[in-house]
What does this fold into?
Amino acid sequence: MSYDETNLPRKVIKYLDEINSDKNLKDAFYYCDVDIYDVNEINKFKEDELWFEDMCGPGSPNYDIKPFARDASGGLWVVLNNEKIGYIGTEGECGIVARNIDEFMNVVATLKIGFISELSDEKSFYKIFEEQNKEFKSSEVLNSFIEKNCFEKDPSKIYHILKLGMTTKPFFLIKGKEGYLDSYSLFGLDDGQKSLEKFIKDYCN
It folds into this structure.
């Protein structure tokens, strides 16, 4: 069944069709902690008006949200307005992880994970990059995916892509209602995105 039957943007559909039609590629993304939903699962979110409150409690997100995958903890990878890619965790955290689906797929295929919450200076990132690739080793199916889509492989460029995504404004936030707390940044538990703002101040100027 094609993802054309969902309400996802065309570029997202292209990638999901490609991944879902290749079991090895889908398994590779699963091991990168991005478990792609099938068409029926995606459409259930569209039909279920209560899924958001069941997961996040009463609250108002500042973006439209369209889930397309989950991670091992039950967190969701979601498409936001203007095709930004966001993440909603199960412990009250959320944020933007990529400016678009191309950059999200590039990061996952090369870094072997969707985002790094301890993103700091470039030197520290290189260490994480090396550890991730050592742990997962070479993946022929991901390498083919990278080549086919002309993705960046240089760690310094991947760091730049990731940094631009996770510092995109306006930040993706969920305002709590009925006594529920507001969401907090993917950079750690804080009130008012303090650690994210500090990262922008220290490393993005």
Notes: DSSP finds nine helices and seven strands in the chain. Residues 3-203 form one domain. The beta strands are 35-36, 59-61, 66-70, 76-79, 85-88, 94-98, 174-176.
